């Protein structure tokens, strides 16, 4: 079970990396996440059931997520719709898109090939195929993100999030940066959805409900545990935060609590993590006052 949780942590960590691109760099929450995540799985699973190879199907899922992010970006920058509302509009519309693609609310991969099947010949122990798949995917995504963020274009993207007015004053097209950021982040999020759908063995239009909480938990847990770190270490911390989150969920399950209410446990974990920095500040302030006395 622990190995399975670690594997799940890697796959959900990809979601955290995608959310990080908007939530922490551009400083706004993108609700498209709850639509692009199941969309990636829906497109991937539908493609596989129609004879497309799992790798190509996964890439198609990524492209679908990028399209969703692009639409949100255009509504936000060109339509002047607030980003949260734009994300909600796209998220809602994607339910119909997924129904059109799958022709059913859920679609099974029973007796269909999956991307993790490529590791079958390695004779790995149970669940280690998911750990290996997740690790490979994480390494590729982190490497691509580092390459992107250390280019001039990537630095312009970061500058847009740091200080939009300053970025605009030096000639950066901030609207373009936002559209590109939303497009890329939702592509990464859709990758997570596609891989998790293959791991679970099915796609479902309801899989996106609450996933933004899971992604945020990965980010917040990583930040709480590791504090001030370099950019590379921050990306790694998000993945480690995702693994820790999955292990916490495993503990909840092992404790015999009803998994029907797993979403509220997820929300409580995230709320506690968000409160920890404030509690630390209060504790340090109290300690400082006591020393002065």
TrEMBL record:
Pfam families: BPD_transp_2
Record's bilayer topology term: Multi-pass membrane protein
Transmembrane segments: 9-26, 55-76, 83-102, 130-158, 179-197, 209-226, 235-253
Subcellular location: Cell membrane
SUPFAM superfamilies (alphabetical): ABC transporter involved in vitamin B12 uptake, BtuC
InterPro entries to which the protein is assigned, alphabetical: ABC_BtuC-like, ABC_transp_permease
Keywords: Cell membrane, Membrane, Transmembrane, Transmembrane helix
PANTHER family xref list: ABC TRANSPORTER PERMEASE PROTEIN YPHD-RELATED-RELATED, BRANCHED-CHAIN AMINO ACID TRANSPORT SYSTEM, PERMEASE PROTEIN
Protein name (record): ABC transporter permease
